[in-house]
Amino acid sequence: MNNLIDLERYPLHRLDSADGKLLVARCSDELECTGMFTLRGFMRSEIIDDILPGLLQKLERESFNHEREHNIYFSDEVAGIPANHPALARVRTVNHTLCGDQLAPPLLQVYRWPGMTEFLARVMQKPKLYPMDDPLACANILGYYEGEGLNWHFDRSEFTTTLLLQAPIDGGEFQYRQALRSDSDQNYDGVARLLRGEDPEVSTLRLGAGDLNVFKGKNTAHRITPPLGDLARLVTVFSYYETPGRRFTDAENMGFYGRINA
After folding, report:
1. Distance CA 54, CA 189 (A)
2. CA–CA distance, 84 with 64 (Å, rounded to integer)
3. How far is CA 114 from the centre of its chain?
4. Which residues contact 100 (CB under 8 A, 6 or more apart)?
5. Which residue of 116, 145, 178, 206 sits 20 to 30 Å from the alpha carbon of 161, by its own alpha carbon?
6. Which listed CATH number (3.40.1390.10, 2.60.120.10, 1.10.760.10, 2.40.50.100) goes with 39-102+131-257?
């Protein structure tokens, strides 16, 4: 695995060593304080250089074009809020998706490596985490060309794990508003201010190729701004769950990928 990721810098294979424990503690502290942590240069640049041309070709020829209008909740009906509330303002998302069965082998090796799941479980303070059994949904690549982006939303899952493969020339930034809502306070007026561009607490994170980011997005609103220039933004999304055997339904796979598992 050391030929794929920088284990000297990030000793995921030695989590019980002093360096491994320090890494877990640092990431846990950052996650608690800021809702995320980033491991810069996690995947080796030579691996990305090797797999990127083939992935770009696949993205251009084989990807599923996912385009939709939605509100920040990805739901047309939100309990406790009138249909005309500005927190339900419609936004537009466009991206191009490659499924797990279209990914380069090194990405799937990292995704399924037990050292990866053990590391994330320790940082998240979970008994255990498992890769998905779904060959389409387990790991995806999302590509954003100039003018496209992932608009404001909250995640359904507790945390999201991403690995950036290519950064655009400009734009394509990860923007987020930490703790915009809570489980006990939906803060609809605050959501409306965010959507109007009036929230001064929005933060921006620019990632580079090879950077791993783990992010808690259930109550933190976030988006990917449209890239500028000829380089698309390519990011791999790894999905992990606390129970084994997780799969999407056929309806979910059709909605996200335009096809179902064979």
Report:
1. 45
2. 32
3. 20
4. 108, 134, 135, 136, 137, 138, 139, 140
5. 145
6. 2.60.120.10
- The pLDDT tens digits of the residues spanning 131-140 come to 999 999 999 9
- Match 């064979």 to its residue by tokens: 262
Encoded tokens for 256: 């996200």
What single string gives the DSSP state of each residue in 178-189? TTSS-SS---HH
pLDDT interval class at 75 (50, 70, 90)? confident
Asked if 3 contacts 44 with a C-beta cutoff of 8 angstroms, the reply is: yes
What CA–CA distance (Å, rounded) separates 119 from 133? 20
Both tokens of residue 15?
């989590």
